[in-house]
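REQUEST ID: PR-0412
SUBMITTED BY: lab tech R.K.
PRIORITY: routine
TASK: structure prediction, single protein chain
INPUT:
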Amino acid sequence: DNKADVYNNRGSLKLDMDDINGAMADYEKAIELNPNSPAAFSNRAFLKMKTGDKRGALDDFNKSITCNPDFADSYFKRGNLKYEMNDSKGALEDFNKQQDKNAVAMMDMMLNLEKENKKLEELKNNTSSTSEEIKEQEKVVSELSTELAKAESQYEKNKLTINKYQKELNLAQAEVNGLTNELNNNKKELEDNRSSYQKVSDE
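STATUS: complete
OUTPUT:
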Protein backbone atom coordinates (compact mmCIF):
# COMPACT_ATOMS: atom_id res chain seq x y z
CA ASP A 1 0.00 0.00 0.00
CA ASN A 2 2.84 2.39 0.85
CA LYS A 3 4.45 1.82 -2.54
CA ALA A 4 1.09 2.43 -4.21
CA ASP A 5 0.79 5.70 -2.29
CA VAL A 6 4.22 6.77 -3.55
CA TYR A 7 3.16 6.25 -7.17
CA ASN A 8 -0.18 7.97 -6.53
CA ASN A 9 1.49 11.01 -4.96
CA ARG A 10 4.13 11.18 -7.69
CA GLY A 11 1.38 11.06 -10.26
CA SER A 12 -0.21 14.14 -8.71
CA LEU A 13 3.14 15.95 -8.80
CA LYS A 14 3.54 15.06 -12.48
CA LEU A 15 0.02 16.32 -13.17
CA ASP A 16 0.93 19.63 -11.51
CA MET A 17 3.83 19.82 -13.98
CA ASP A 18 1.46 19.06 -16.91
CA ASP A 19 3.07 15.67 -17.49
CA ILE A 20 -0.23 14.01 -18.42
CA ASN A 21 1.24 10.73 -19.69
CA GLY A 22 3.60 10.41 -16.72
CA ALA A 23 0.77 11.08 -14.28
CA MET A 24 -1.48 8.51 -15.95
CA ALA A 25 1.29 5.88 -15.85
CA ASP A 26 1.84 6.49 -12.13
CA TYR A 27 -1.87 6.36 -11.28
CA GLU A 28 -2.23 3.10 -13.20
CA LYS A 29 0.79 1.64 -11.39
CA ALA A 30 -0.70 2.71 -8.05
CA ILE A 31 -3.96 0.93 -8.92
CA GLU A 32 -2.04 -2.15 -10.06
CA LEU A 33 -0.26 -2.27 -6.69
CA ASN A 34 -3.40 -1.50 -4.70
CA PRO A 35 -6.65 -2.12 -6.62
CA ASN A 36 -8.62 -0.93 -3.58
CA SER A 37 -7.19 2.60 -3.44
CA PRO A 38 -10.02 5.16 -3.57
CA ALA A 39 -7.49 8.00 -3.95
CA ALA A 40 -5.73 6.45 -6.97
CA PHE A 41 -9.02 5.76 -8.76
CA SER A 42 -10.24 9.28 -7.94
CA ASN A 43 -7.02 10.85 -9.24
CA ARG A 44 -7.08 8.79 -12.43
CA ALA A 45 -10.74 9.73 -12.88
CA PHE A 46 -9.90 13.42 -12.53
CA LEU A 47 -7.13 13.05 -15.12
CA LYS A 48 -9.50 11.28 -17.53
CA MET A 49 -12.03 14.06 -16.93
CA LYS A 50 -9.31 16.62 -17.70
CA THR A 51 -8.44 14.90 -20.99
CA GLY A 52 -12.08 14.58 -22.10
CA ASP A 53 -12.70 10.91 -21.31
CA LYS A 54 -15.88 11.57 -19.34
CA ARG A 55 -17.22 8.02 -19.46
CA GLY A 56 -13.91 6.62 -18.29
CA ALA A 57 -13.77 9.24 -15.54
CA LEU A 58 -17.27 8.35 -14.35
CA ASP A 59 -16.34 4.68 -14.22
CA ASP A 60 -13.23 5.45 -12.13
CA PHE A 61 -15.13 7.72 -9.73
CA ASN A 62 -17.65 4.92 -9.25
CA LYS A 63 -14.79 2.49 -8.50
CA SER A 64 -13.28 4.95 -6.04
CA ILE A 65 -16.56 5.19 -4.14
CA THR A 66 -16.96 1.40 -4.24
CA CYS A 67 -13.50 1.09 -2.65
CA ASN A 68 -14.48 3.54 0.09
CA PRO A 69 -18.08 4.87 0.27
CA ASP A 70 -16.88 7.54 2.72
CA PHE A 71 -14.32 9.05 0.32
CA ALA A 72 -15.94 12.49 0.12
CA ASP A 73 -13.61 13.93 -2.54
CA SER A 74 -14.88 11.48 -5.16
CA TYR A 75 -18.48 12.50 -4.57
CA PHE A 76 -17.60 16.16 -5.18
CA LYS A 77 -15.57 15.47 -8.33
CA ARG A 78 -18.15 13.03 -9.66
CA GLY A 79 -20.80 15.67 -9.00
CA ASN A 80 -18.87 18.16 -11.15
CA LEU A 81 -18.53 15.53 -13.88
CA LYS A 82 -22.25 14.73 -13.81
CA TYR A 83 -23.01 18.43 -14.09
CA GLU A 84 -20.76 18.63 -17.17
CA MET A 85 -22.69 15.64 -18.56
CA ASN A 86 -25.98 17.54 -18.06
CA ASP A 87 -27.05 15.34 -15.15
CA SER A 88 -27.92 18.18 -12.76
CA LYS A 89 -30.00 15.99 -10.48
CA GLY A 90 -27.22 13.38 -10.15
CA ALA A 91 -24.69 16.15 -9.54
CA LEU A 92 -26.78 17.61 -6.74
CA GLU A 93 -27.18 14.19 -5.12
CA ASP A 94 -23.39 13.71 -5.13
CA PHE A 95 -22.73 17.19 -3.70
CA ASN A 96 -25.17 16.54 -0.86
CA LYS A 97 -23.57 13.14 -0.15
CA GLN A 98 -20.17 14.82 -0.01
CA GLN A 99 -21.48 17.39 2.45
CA ASP A 100 -22.83 14.60 4.66
CA LYS A 101 -19.43 12.86 4.66
CA ASN A 102 -17.63 16.14 5.36
CA ALA A 103 -19.97 16.96 8.23
CA VAL A 104 -19.12 13.64 9.89
CA ALA A 105 -15.39 14.21 9.30
CA MET A 106 -15.60 17.71 10.83
CA MET A 107 -17.37 16.33 13.88
CA ASP A 108 -14.51 13.85 14.34
CA MET A 109 -12.01 16.72 13.97
CA MET A 110 -13.85 18.77 16.58
CA LEU A 111 -13.87 15.87 19.05
CA ASN A 112 -10.17 15.22 18.43
CA LEU A 113 -9.34 18.91 18.86
CA GLU A 114 -11.27 19.01 22.12
CA LYS A 115 -9.32 15.98 23.35
CA GLU A 116 -5.95 17.51 22.37
CA ASN A 117 -6.87 20.84 23.95
CA LYS A 118 -7.65 19.01 27.16
CA LYS A 119 -4.22 17.35 27.02
CA LEU A 120 -2.63 20.76 26.55
CA GLU A 121 -4.40 22.19 29.58
CA GLU A 122 -3.36 19.19 31.66
CA LEU A 123 0.27 19.67 30.61
CA LYS A 124 0.15 23.36 31.49
CA ASN A 125 -1.34 22.61 34.90
CA ASN A 126 1.17 19.86 35.62
CA THR A 127 4.26 21.32 37.25
CA SER A 128 6.38 18.40 36.06
CA SER A 129 5.64 19.14 32.37
CA THR A 130 8.58 20.46 30.36
CA SER A 131 8.37 23.45 28.04
CA GLU A 132 9.19 21.13 25.14
CA GLU A 133 6.20 18.91 25.93
CA ILE A 134 3.92 21.92 26.07
CA LYS A 135 5.29 23.34 22.81
CA GLU A 136 4.84 19.98 21.09
CA GLN A 137 1.24 19.73 22.25
CA GLU A 138 0.58 23.34 21.22
CA LYS A 139 1.82 22.40 17.75
CA VAL A 140 -0.62 19.47 17.63
CA VAL A 141 -3.51 21.73 18.65
CA SER A 142 -2.50 24.40 16.14
CA GLU A 143 -2.31 21.91 13.25
CA LEU A 144 -5.69 20.42 14.13
CA SER A 145 -7.23 23.89 14.40
CA THR A 146 -5.88 24.81 10.95
CA GLU A 147 -7.15 21.56 9.45
CA LEU A 148 -10.61 22.11 10.95
CA ALA A 149 -10.73 25.74 9.76
CA LYS A 150 -9.91 24.63 6.20
CA ALA A 151 -12.58 21.94 6.33
CA GLU A 152 -15.18 24.42 7.60
CA SER A 153 -14.23 26.92 4.89
CA GLN A 154 -14.53 24.26 2.16
CA TYR A 155 -17.85 23.14 3.62
CA GLU A 156 -19.25 26.67 3.28
CA LYS A 157 -17.94 26.97 -0.29
CA ASN A 158 -19.59 23.66 -1.15
CA LYS A 159 -22.87 24.95 0.26
CA LEU A 160 -22.73 27.86 -2.19
CA THR A 161 -22.09 25.43 -5.05
CA ILE A 162 -25.00 23.25 -3.97
CA ASN A 163 -27.32 26.26 -3.71
CA LYS A 164 -26.28 27.37 -7.21
CA TYR A 165 -27.00 23.96 -8.74
CA GLN A 166 -30.24 23.63 -6.78
CA LYS A 167 -31.47 26.94 -8.22
CA GLU A 168 -30.49 25.85 -11.73
CA LEU A 169 -32.27 22.53 -11.23
CA ASN A 170 -35.38 24.30 -9.92
CA LEU A 171 -35.39 26.65 -12.94
CA ALA A 172 -34.97 23.72 -15.32
CA GLN A 173 -37.79 21.84 -13.60
CA ALA A 174 -40.02 24.93 -13.76
CA GLU A 175 -39.29 25.22 -17.48
CA VAL A 176 -40.17 21.56 -18.01
CA ASN A 177 -43.39 22.00 -16.04
CA GLY A 178 -44.25 25.09 -18.11
CA LEU A 179 -43.68 23.23 -21.38
CA THR A 180 -45.71 20.27 -20.11
CA ASN A 181 -48.61 22.55 -19.16
CA GLU A 182 -48.40 24.28 -22.55
CA LEU A 183 -48.43 20.92 -24.31
CA ASN A 184 -51.43 19.75 -22.28
CA ASN A 185 -53.30 23.00 -23.03
CA ASN A 186 -52.56 22.65 -26.75
CA LYS A 187 -53.71 19.06 -26.66
CA LYS A 188 -56.96 20.04 -24.92
CA GLU A 189 -57.52 22.87 -27.41
CA LEU A 190 -56.96 20.45 -30.29
CA GLU A 191 -59.43 17.98 -28.81
CA ASP A 192 -62.02 20.77 -28.29
CA ASN A 193 -61.58 21.91 -31.89
CA ARG A 194 -61.91 18.36 -33.12
CA SER A 195 -65.09 17.92 -31.06
CA SER A 196 -66.56 21.17 -32.43
CA TYR A 197 -65.70 20.13 -35.98
CA GLN A 198 -67.37 16.78 -35.42
CA LYS A 199 -70.57 18.48 -34.22
CA VAL A 200 -70.65 20.74 -37.27
CA SER A 201 -70.14 17.75 -39.57
CA ASP A 202 -72.98 15.83 -37.87
CA GLU A 203 -75.36 18.76 -38.46
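NOTES: The mean pLDDT is 90.
REVIEWED BY: pending
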